[in-house]
Design brief:
Blueprint lengths: L1 H6 L2 H24 L2 H20 L3 H21 L1 H16 L2 H28 L3 E5 L6 H4 L3 E6 L2 H8 L9 E5 L2 E7 L15 H10 L5 E5 L6 E5 L2 E4 L2 H12 L1
Parallel strand pairs: 1-3
Antiparallel strand pairs: 1-5, 2-4, 3-4, 5-6, 6-7
Helix pairs in contact: 2-3, 3-4, 6-8, 6-10
Amino acid sequence: MQSLLSLITFRNVIDLLLVTFIAFYVYRLLRRSGAVNLFWGLFAFVAVWFLAGYVFHLKLTGALFNQIVSVGAIAIIVIFQNEIRSFFYSVGSHVGKLPFGRARQQQDAERMSSELLQALEEMSHARTGALIVLTERQELNQYADSGEVVDAALSARLIRNIFFKNSPLHDGAMFITDGRIRSAACILPVSASKNIPEHYGLRHRAALGLTEQTDAVAIVVSEETGEISLAEGDTIREVKKEELTAFVRGFFL
């Protein structure tokens, strides 16, 4: 009993709390991205490895698991590359909220909102059809990975070129995640709602089909009229320039 109490030190308590926090944070991130089953599979592997090698002292089984673990780090990076990127982005976003990071965060938000608004205004004027998804907490890999990976900085010129009618990527949705153009020509579910106005086309139904099921928002530029619509939750509506500007800036900030 005394030896057990001697292990309960302030340093050990802090160590345990940090490990618990990291494990919970990783689990929440994977659950949000739909990869939680991989987390439990990895957890089961680690548990069996620990029991075999350090509790029951099974030399052959422990040696086998040690060999797998020695190359497992590379496999984990490959399997969880999107989640690892999201983890560090999330950490960076929290650091950015500190006083010394707010100025840079403000500049980045202003630049990204300016680029997107410029692209939307020019496509609206030219009546270039477009469907842009802005992701929030949910990763939406099943939809974002259905198209072509772009992974480029947010740029008005690039957005216009992707949605140009002769571009091979113009037919489908563009995903903007973490302030970057993640992918284009993505396939979205189509809403079956009967409350959608008749003059709305397939892009509008696809935008609403996604936002009905997720926390993402979608912006649609009508090819027929040039009007810009915003889909949130189970509603989609046309927005004026002032309202769109306020929304986009607020989103990135």
